[in-house]
Amino acid sequence: MNKRGVKQVLRFSAQQLVTRWLVGCVCGLALIASNAYAAPVVLEVIDAYAEVHSGPGRGYPVFYVIEQGEKIEILSRRPDWYEIRAKNGKVGWTTTAAISRTIQKTGEPADLPSVGYGDYIKGSFVTGFSTGQFLEGDLEEFDVFTVSGGYRFLAWLGADVEYGRLFGSGSAGDLYAANVFVEPAAHWKLSPFLSLGTGEISMDTQPDQINFDVESATFNTYGLGASYYLGRNFVIKGEYRWYSIDVDDETERFGTWKLGFNTFF
Fold first, then answer.
1. Nearest-angstrom CA–CA distance, 245 and 199
2. What is the pLDDT of residue 151?
3. Fold of 125-264
4. Quick one: which of 217, 219, 134, 192 has its CA closest to 168?
5. 45, 68 in Cβ contact below 8 A?
6. What is the domain partition of the chain in residue ranges?
7. Are the C-beta atoms of 175 and 144 separated by less than 8 Å?
8. Which of 76, 113, 132, 190 could form a disulfide with 258 if both were Cys (CB 3.0 to 4.6 A apart)?
9. For residue range 134-145, what is the model confidence (pLDDT) as tens digits?
10. Which residues of 34-51 are buried (b: 16+ CB within 10 A; e: fewer)?
11. Is the pLDDT assigned to residue 37 strictly greater than 60?
12. Summary mean pLDDT of the chain
């Protein structure tokens, strides 16, 4: 076989490989899609009730009410509305807000387009605790333990008040803070957030070996972190927070990492 014939054979073989690869990809995607549609999304209502409208809009009348604990099947979606089937076979439409107050078989909040973890905990109170350590500034290697309580105003916005106790180098102190949290991707299970806060720090004892010579001072903070949602009402949070503390007309800067656990109710 001459060189031209060899090139033609190689070109034909390459075309066959590419064609088979493309066909395989298309078949694989079709199989995935068919499996996705074959498995219906079934959710459980956890609020006292959910209203079912005859169409996707407030102007359509409510013809059925789903009770707490009842399971529903998701059929289709429109902007701000989901078509559902109740256990008795009735088919209608309910709001995205109502779907956000449902859970999966695993106990996790509904995971659907336009519905996420932040929607589930919106309007909830939150309590939590955390532990961490200062890594920068005069309080480097001081351990800090905090407890907090707050409220989730929106899916992506929350606030809390915080009390903390810090220890290190034979010293101890307290901190009090008020914080705001912005979580732009709250529908994700692992969701980044930004925190902003202000507060006061005071030291009980201050041996000579530390340079932080102040009894009480105000501070401002900002931090970056991530929330990992565990099931219905529990969240693990990790954060790195920067402190700017006003001492004797000067600003001292500190940094600390924190790992905490929150619960919503």
1. 9
2. 96
3. Porin (2.40.160)
4. 134
5. yes
6. 41-115, 125-264
7. yes
8. 132
9. 988 778 889 999
10. eeeeeeebebbbeeeebe
11. no
12. 82
